[in-house]
């Protein structure tokens, strides 16, 4: 078997079959969620909820507390985003694609710092020895947290944050032996780039809706 196939398959040889099935489910629904997000389709949230709930369980099994907590937050924010995107007033959607203003940028930065502090506390609370990869996990958790909030409020900048954090996460998960999830984040990165272009084009063509 080639080294590439060994990389993706070796971690699963001794893994419980039900965990492999759950990882496949998370993979499929995770991709579907980003696909719907590209198209500003509200199905981003129900599909995302399935992916994040399953992924949260998988990370708990592997004691990846930072990843687990950020997926818990994804689940909460998916419910909020679902509600926010669905709001209609006078026959029109309340929330439209827009750029962040100065206040929202500062709020995002505050969420980034708070999330890193909270994730660090979760690791300490569970008695996990924090290594270099865990600090990377803490950092990306802060980026993902902010990106999810920007997504829920339809801010264009959410895609920039997804791209940055996805690129960091690809080698991180590969190093941990999560071949399938590492591949998923490669796909996420491609979809996020496409999503940024799609939302920006929509915003440029509909400035009155911002």
Derived structural class: mainly alpha
Give a short account of the largest sheet.
Answer: 2 strands, antiparallel
Report Rg. 17 Å
Tell how many strands the DSSP assignment holds.
2
Helix proportion of residues, in percent?
A: over 70%
Going across the biggest sheet, name each strand in turn.
1-2
Question: How many distinct helices?
Answer: 8
- The outline comes out as globular
Overall pLDDT score: 86
Low-confidence segments:
none
Span of the ends, CA to CA:
52 Å
Can you tell me the number of structural domains? 1
Element pattern in H and E = HHHHEEHHHH
Strand content: under 5%
Task: Give a description of the structure.
There is one protein chain. By secondary structure, the chain is mainly α. The chain has one domain. The protein is 77% helix and 2% strand. The chain contains eight helices and two strands. The chain has helices spanning 3-9, 17-38, 44-61, 65-86, 102-125, 132-152, 157-176, 179-205; strands spanning 88-89, 92-93. It has a two-stranded antiparallel sheet. α7 (157-176) packs antiparallel against α8. The protein is globular. The N and C termini lie far apart (52 Å). The mean pLDDT is 86.
